[in-house]
Specification:
Blueprint: E1 5-10, E2 12-15, H1 23-32, E3 52-53, E4 57-58, H2 66-78, H3 86-91, E5 94-95, E6 101-104, E7 109-112, H4 119-144, E8 148-151, E9 164-171, H5 176-194, E10 198-203, E11 206-214, E12 222-227, E13 234-238, E14 250-255, H6 264-282, H7 295-304, E15 311-313, E16 319-321, H8 322-337, H9 342-360, H10 370-385, H11 393-401, H12 422-428, H13 437-448, E17 452-456, E18 459-464, E19 467-472, H14 479-490, H15 495-501
Parallel strand pairs: 12-13
Antiparallel strand pairs: 1-7, 1-9, 2-8, 3-4, 5-6, 6-7, 9-14, 10-11, 15-16, 17-18, 18-19
């Protein structure tokens, strides 16, 4: 779809029947189960700078949840005798042969998909992450003699929210103020089809209102319109400036406002619509009239609205439904982007159909949209068990919807629409997308692992006869250049031949 995109997902982790666990330790141990051989840290952190803000400055500090202070104290004790190892050991980074990254992030195992250009490749790789982590959980369970359970969700119901970030490479020359004004209202109303659903209203202090069903797991946790933070005082538009590509040409839109979706259809629609809106933004086609008044209040009001009318106020004072607001974006996309390729047309068709179904009766989407499927499950359970909506039992139902174990997950017991096959997901567990730089990263590790010294999203360094040679992959954001590099890799029997084919010194 004319750009690189990917998804980062933090998973909830617990032990069966455990009242309290060390989530950092369990996340580290789970990730180590990805491969049996000793851990060799190869991820290169020098290229990462979470303090750099794309508005042109560097933040002095990042806001963290109050609990993070206590977690940092625990981390220092873990490696008191090995302070130089503490950071790398805690992160436990694994670079996977499918081009993905698996690591511990703030006490959660996180899977970052490889960069994709095909929407359906991305869905397959997102689902591959579920299976890879579940395999790790099963191995760790055997080691412990106690069952490890993973949830692809965004809340523990105790005031902690963990993320699912959708990322998009886009043009640097888009003025930030225009980007913010255009994408912020889209993010706010996207939740009517992208939300994963949740029982209860939550704050950082804990569960505030049990029994209240809402569209999303994340909307309660956003407090500012734009900032560089991701952990506390979260922004709807994140301004972290880490393009992982040529910074003169590109920025990365780091979308932290979305839920982790179990539904393949919902994932495809969430990412596909956002990619099209970004294309419209790059062409300066989003009018100022799309802007919303009071965005921080509105994102919560839409999520909490039990009438499903989802009314909001635009910047000009006009009241409009979230459905009609989404139609404004859709109509511009239909006018300017229809006919580009089959994936774009799929998104446009399904976007329109989903909005029509939401307007007619949201329950028509039980087989496609996560929040609707979960609501149906909860309603059925409440009726069959004759319980009230504030019964804590419903939190368990909510959680089990997100269980990654296909034999136990309530999601996998539902007849949900698919957009990829099991065979595609199985292939994505071991094979990177063939048309992006993720292929170069994954296949280099697969072919020349012993020669790989360090890896980053946009570079990989080889040890060639005692000399370090770094392949900068910034230019591989261009699919034609990526193809040439990937072909050179396939034809090279060793790293020396590879760098010679690439014309590197």
């Amino acid at each position: 779809m004319h750009r690189l995109f990917g998804i980062e997902t933090e998973y909830g982790i617990t032990l069966e029947n455990a009242e309290q666990i060390d989530t950092v330790k369990e996340s580290i141990e789970l990730i180590k189960c990805y491969q049996r051989e000793p851990f060799l840290p190869k991820w290169d952190y020098k290229g990462e700078d979470p303090f750099k803000d794309e508005r042109g400055f560097r933040a002095k500090h990042l806001n963290n949840h109050p609990d993070e202070v206590e977690e940092e104290k625990k981390d220092k004790k873990r490696f008191a005798n090995q302070p130089d190892r503490s950071f790398r050991e805690i992160k436990s980074d694994r670079i996977l042969i499918n081009g993905a990254r698996l690591y511990n992030d703030h006490a959660h195992p996180e899977y970052s998909t490889p960069e994709c250009q095909s929407l359906f490749d991305l869905v397959a790789h997102d689902k591959a992450g579920e299976r890879i982590l579940q395999e790790c959980a099963e191995r760790r369970s055997q080691e412990l003699g106690e069952r490890v359970i993973l949830y692809k969700n965004n809340t523990d119901f105790y005031g902690h929210s963990y993320g699912c970030h959708d990322n998009y490479l886009m043009a640097r020359d888009v003025p930030f103020d225009y980007l913010k004004t255009s994408i912020l209202p889209f993010f706010i109303t996207r939740q009517i089809f992208a939300g994963a659903g949740k029982i209860g209203i939550e704050t950082e202090a804990g569960l505030a209102t049990p029994g209240h069903f809402q569209l999303t797991q994340r909307s309660d946790f956003f407090h500012v319109e734009a900032s560089v933070d991701t952990m506390h005082k979260r922004p709807i538009v994140n301004t972290r400036d880490e393009p992982h590509a040529d910074p003169a040409k590109y920025r990365r839109l780091h979308g932290i406002v979305g839920d982790a979706n179990m539904s393949e259809y919902a994932t495809a629609l969430k990412v596909g619509t956002t990619a099209l809106v970004i294309e419209l933004i790059e062409q300066r086609l989003i009018p100022e009239t799309c802007a919303i008044a009071n965005p921080i209040d509105t994102i919560k009001l839409i999520s909490h609205d039990q009438t499903y009318r989802w009314m909001l106020q635009k910047i000009d004072g006009k009241m409009i439904s979230a459905i009609d607001h989404q139609r404004e974006f859709l109509e511009i996309a239909q006018k300017h982007l229809a006919g580009q390729n089959s994936e774009t047309d799929w998104v446009l068709t399904q976007w329109e159909q989903t909005l029509d179904d939401l307007e007619n009766d949201p329950m028509d989407l039980t087989d496609r949209i996560d929040w609707v499927a979960k609501k149906w499950l909860l309603e059925t359970f409440v009726e069959s068990e004759e319980i009230e909506w504030d019964d804590p039992w419903l939190q368990s139902i909510d959680l089990e919807y997100h269980n990654t174990n296909v034999e136990e997950s309530l999601f996998y017991g539902l007849p949900m629409q698919r957009v990829v096959t099991d065979e595609q997901i199985q292939a994505a567990m071991h094979t990177p997308p063939a048309d992006t730089r993720a292929y170069f990263r994954g296949k280099s590790l697969n072919k020349f692992e012993d020669a790989v010294k360090t890896v980053q999203w946009d570079s990989i360094s080889f040890d060639i006869k005692g000399r370090t040679v770094t392949v900068n992959m910034n230019s591989l954001a261009n699919p034609e250049i990526a193809r040439k590099y990937n072909e050179a890799l396939d034809l090279s029997p060793n790293p020396q031949t590879l760098v010679e084919k690439l014309g590197l010194p």
